Amino acid sequence: MGGENRRPTWPFLCILVCLFVLAATAPKLWERATDVGPSHSRSLLAESVPEPEGASLQESEHTARTAVASPAPASVPEIGREAAPATVVDTVGPPLTMPQTEPTAIQGAEPADMAGPAIEPPSAPPEPIGEAGAEATALPGAVEAPTLPQIAGPAQPIAAPAVEPEPGAMAAEEVAPAPQIELPAQQADRPDSLWPEPTALLDQLDGLTGNGQTGQWARETATRVREFGAAVAEGSDTASFELGRLNRLRAEAEPMQSSLEDTELADRFAGARYALGRRLALWREVMLSGGLRVTLGEPTAADWGRLASRLERVNRKLGTSVAGRAWREYLAWERLEAAADASAADQAATRQVARETLARLTRGGFNARQRRFVASSPLAELTAELRYWAADPVQVAGLLAHAEQYERTGLPSDAECLVRDYLRLAGASDPRTKPLAAWLAAEHRDANLRVAVSEGLLNRFLPSRKPEFACVNDTILGNPVSGRSWLRSELAVRMIPDPQRARLAVEVRGALSSQTESTSGPATFYSDGVADILATKRLELDLSGIHCGPTEVAVENDLRLRGVSTDFDGIPFLGAFAQDMALDQHEKKQPEVKAELDWKVSTRAQAMVDGEIEPRVDKLNQRLRERVLEPLAALGLGPALLGAETGRQRLSMRLRLGGDSQMGGCPLRPWAPSDSLVSCQVHESAVNNFLQRLELDGARLTVAELREKLARVLKVPELAQGDAEHDEAEITFAAQDAVWVEFDQGQVAVHLAIARLKEAPHHWDNFQVRAAYRPRVQGRSVELVREDLIELSGELSTRSEIVLRGVFSKTFSKQRPLKLMPQALEQDPRLADVAVTQFTIDDGWIGVALGPQRGQRQPVVARRSDAEGAK
Q1: Residues 6+ away with beta carbon under 8 Å from 272
Q2: 307 is a domain residue
Q3: Is 26's pLDDT higher than 80?
Q4: How does DSSP assign 578-605, residue by residue?
Q5: Is residue 618 a part of any domain in this protein?
Q6: How many separate domains does the chain show?
Q7: Residue 223 domain boundaries
Q8: So what's the pLDDT on residue 249?
Q9: What is the CB neighbour count within 10 angstroms for residue 500?
Q10: Which of 223, 325, 572, 868 is most enclosed, with most CB atoms within 10 A?
Q11: Assigned domain for 765 exists
């Protein structure tokens, strides 16, 4: 999982788990006793499930997601601190190839800093305009297109300021080659029957019919599903009645579910109940929209004025500079303006031009400055608008078919069909599209990474502090003070409850003891003092990094006079009189002395805490930007922060890793044990989104080229080094779904689809490979081990199967398990009583949790009934 263990066969472990979970437990930032900022701040990235208080949190999240409405037609996407370039939206229509144009030649232009592989560009993207303004955009975020209402709190976007270009300020910059961008034709939306039978749901119900406790409910539910489908397909008035009966059946299942003692049966029953519930919500919206024969998002509902407004704003930003002219040439501006002319509007032509322009704006190969420019307003708004125009109108029957197809297969190509439907529905002005868009956002574009970290775990990594001794040489009320002091202090992390943000505080509690003497005129005062100090530094985490608030210091001084001496002590009567006068003056000045002393102790404590924490937070933010946000942005993976919450004992964050045109997770995720110190849930869509960004569909590469590509994309040069035995072997990947993963039934399955594997003089065509891994857990160690045989499918001879199984058995070797925990974490003595208490793989999710080790307790798999109650 750590950088040293990253492998090309499992790159997502590096991107997801290493970058987000391990950040919480890295003790290196606590090298000094007062180094409090980075350690706990870093662990903010590590966790997010709410455990006992989390049950209600998950419940409220799901309620909010399913109840939310779609945006208004003219909604403008929120511009994150820096949005990553997103992928091209594949839409209906024939495959198209971007026209090749010569890049603008600029004297002295330097090659762009490529974040990905070298590819052929349709034309070279120019240098950003007004780079100073683009730089004002903070860190990479996600540009949602179009934006749905925030569910768990605002993401607090920072829009880049409009910057007027200076004539000749920037010039077109050469970039490394980029691929020709082809958009495959969409499959026919309208199935043979208007009603697509929910075969995945019916299969789940069929698996419950053989049990005496669940059989009657499952059979009746399956019957009602089929009767409802027939009624909807015919447009019968009985459809509403059948939908009501299905809702009652789902309600009856809740007490039945809690009574099941067989854990495996309870899991399957809860899964079927949840699958029924999510479809009932969709079917209800389908009926309210007008039925299966309705087409939504038609050209008549298009807002041509909105498109023209977006174009005008971009045109003003481009100005008349050299860079502006280069960008217009790159974007084929005249064709775009002509296509947006409502007086001669042609929906098909506009869609074609929108696809081409969108392909250029979301292409790979942009350097960091170009990404910032494209992600800034108003270009990000135009990109969001073009996603709507690039998609076809949505036939409701086709939407249902796409949803059921994705439920059945989970393939990335099927996910793309749903995403296209969502983009068209979310951007349409027809009010009937809003509930359907909201359903898609809640059920298929939800967070696919959820992390939570507890206060208890953070405090384990805080150092114990030794007493600090110091000499005192100061002045109070203008009088010199000298002596010695010693400070005893403790560090602690405290959560700051907030329903919408990830917030915590570092507390420094100290007791400052001192023995001092102060001279005022002929008198010298000897004092003992004890000052109780509480310094609080508030921190907040979002996608722009960790933000420090002002340090608040509270001081309570107890200063006691130990004795007094004067220059007249040796003179009878006069010495006593002088001491009495000195004591009287001392008593009168005590409030002033205490006020000044409190102010000085408070000021110095604040300076000390700020000096220790803020530089380290700045350093951590730089690492976060360089190691997490910028690499994800370069791959077009966002991330997008969908929600954060801080409870009394833990904080949680929900993120989606993926571009605007990619899938997210679903709400039904594992529920971590209530005593977990840190937990994480990762949906397979996060991994598949990353694999899509590798652009392997249809690619033809040698083994050596594939290793180099992975090393370049992941920025891990050692991946390019490997066994050169088969370096000349050439792999042609399938045109779609070339590489994808599946998390289900306790397995992580890696799928490869290969059009041709060639190693002279042999070659094999059109076959698929599946390698399944199961977890092996011991203490804090987690490994994925391949247990089953490599599965091959396709038209292969017995001899070919034997050869290929041998080849891929070496690629996915049983002798090389995939370690998910770094060695430093496994051996850290501060976690001696901590073990993996959960590692579950089911329904597209991996859930892992660390918690206190209790005897021989084995890692638990979260029951589906628990997850159902917390969805």
Answers
A1: 201, 204, 205, 207, 208, 218, 221
A2: no
A3: no
A4: HHHHHHHHHHHHHHHHHHHHHHHHHHHH
A5: yes
A6: 2
A7: 199-292
A8: 94
A9: 15
A10: 868
A11: no
Amino acid at 779: G
Sole residue written with tokens 């502006």: 324
Helix axes 199-206, 263-289, angle to 10 degrees: 150
Q: At what angle do helices 238-259 and 215-234 cross, to 10 degrees?
A: 160
Domain boundary among 626, 655, 670: 626
pLDDT tens digits for 146-174? 332 322 333 333 232 233 333 333 333 33
Task: Answer yes or no: is pLDDT of 21 > 70.
Answer: no
Q: Which amino acid is at 581?
A: M
Half-sphere exposure of 746 (CA within 13 A, CB side): 14
List pLDDT tens digits, range 103-129: 333 223 333 332 332 223 334 566 666
Helix (H) or strand (E) holding 121: none
Label residue 466 by pLDDT band (50, 70, 90).
Answer: confident
User: DSSP label at 649?
Assistant: S
Residue 811: is its pLDDT beyond 70? yes
Sequence-ordered alpha helix ranges (H) in 472-537: none
pTM: 0.73
Please choose, from the candidates 344, 226, 334, 201, the residue with its C-alpha nearest in 3D space to the C-alpha of residue 279: 201
Residue of 598, 627, 514 lying closest to 562 (CA atoms): 514
Orientation angle between helical segments 433-444 and 412-427, nearest 10 degrees: 140
Q: What are the DSSP calls for 424-481, one per residue?
A: HHHH-S-TTHHHHHHHHHHHHSB-SEEEEEEHHHHHHTSPP---EEEEEEEEETTEEE
Q: Where does a domain end: 258, 276, 292?
A: 292
